[in-house]
């Protein structure tokens, strides 16, 4: 194949007539190449030209579909590459030529086409291509004049009313709220938010008490979408620099939505309204008691606030809730709690934690309770704790640790397995060698396995790597 320099030389030495005739012949046969040439030559584009770009997108989809109209996982990689390449090349060419509205229409077509794809999307193709469309819209909005930008805003906003997948809607919302910050757009988005919120809350604008919104009959998806629109509106109020009192009242109206409560509590902390933030988190724990993740986050925030406001007894109680309920056995919480007790007191108090928490290895290791750590490791079904803390426990009961190794190895070797498992067994045997009598035990196991499992060549290969 000729390199770029050779191609350039070939064209340079050809006469103009030959080049033109050859190019005309190619353009007559290849519509895609014709449209690329129009962009490159600066020819004024028509609506039919944009349609030809759209047809090529459809062609790329069809070429990668199977007989059932489905793009398989294997075909999705090529589809992704071709779609991205054509979209990027065409959109870049149109924007560079200041063909802003044709560029927008083409990108919109690409975006909406993703909504109707039947594809194995395990590799995230549709999300990546949707984001590419958003990225080109961003470039387009940055490049165009204010009047065109205004048209683009309303065109993009109109896509929200289309019947598109939720994940595509999320991309459109991000585009609207992230890249259009002029005052006229902020006010229009405020109206949009109110429309969406009324629609999602069944036309209801009531929220006289904290449970009003929470008690509205809606599924998880609608509730999540409602929370997003409420937060969008709050962000707009911030951008418009509306009075803090007005923003506070709006937050209180939707305070039973977890995301709004969290936002408002953080806002109270920012404004040094600590007692109000504490109340919000305490009430939130009652309201969202069936959601472990939220309970953990609220409890952590409460502990920090109690400490900040010098409410030490409440701080201590919240740490106990964390260590026993929401963040069981967390080492950092454990250290915070330990600092509140004398050494003698803590020796007794920590037993409450040891009695209620299952995974205690980090705590035993931190406290230097290696005898307990050893017992925990020996009782475990695998060698995980032995391997992790071997340097700390190996001298406490070497014979029992060797016995644990042997037990696990024999359990692993019994079923026919793969080379990776056999390599793991060999590695365990190597780790046994430094122990007292480890050499003899490993030799005994190797001799036995070489006879019993001689028909497993992969296993024999791995065992031969163990030097006794």
Walk me through the structure.
With 468 residues, the protein is an all-alpha fold. Among the domains are: 31-179; 397-468, no CATH class. The chain is built from 25 helices and no strands. It has helices spanning 4-12, 16-29, 31-41, 47-64, 73-96, 100-115, 125-143, 146-159, 166-179, 183-200, 220-239, 244-253, 258-270, 274-287, 292-308, 312-326, 331-338, 343-356, 361-367, 370-379, 384-393, 398-413, 419-432, 438-452, 457-463. Helix 4 packs parallel to helix 6 (100-115). The two termini are 57 Å apart. 25% of the residues are buried.
Task: Please give the alpha-carbon distance between the first and last residues.
Answer: 57 Å
Number of strands: 0
Mean pLDDT: 89
Low-pLDDT runs of 5+ residues are: 205-212
The count of helical stretches stands at 25
Major beta sheet summary = none
List the helices and strands and how they pair.
Layout: H1 4-12, H2 16-29, H3 31-41, H4 47-64, H5 73-96, H6 100-115, H7 125-143, H8 146-159, H9 166-179, H10 183-200, H11 220-239, H12 244-253, H13 258-270, H14 274-287, H15 292-308, H16 312-326, H17 331-338, H18 343-356, H19 361-367, H20 370-379, H21 384-393, H22 398-413, H23 419-432, H24 438-452, H25 457-463
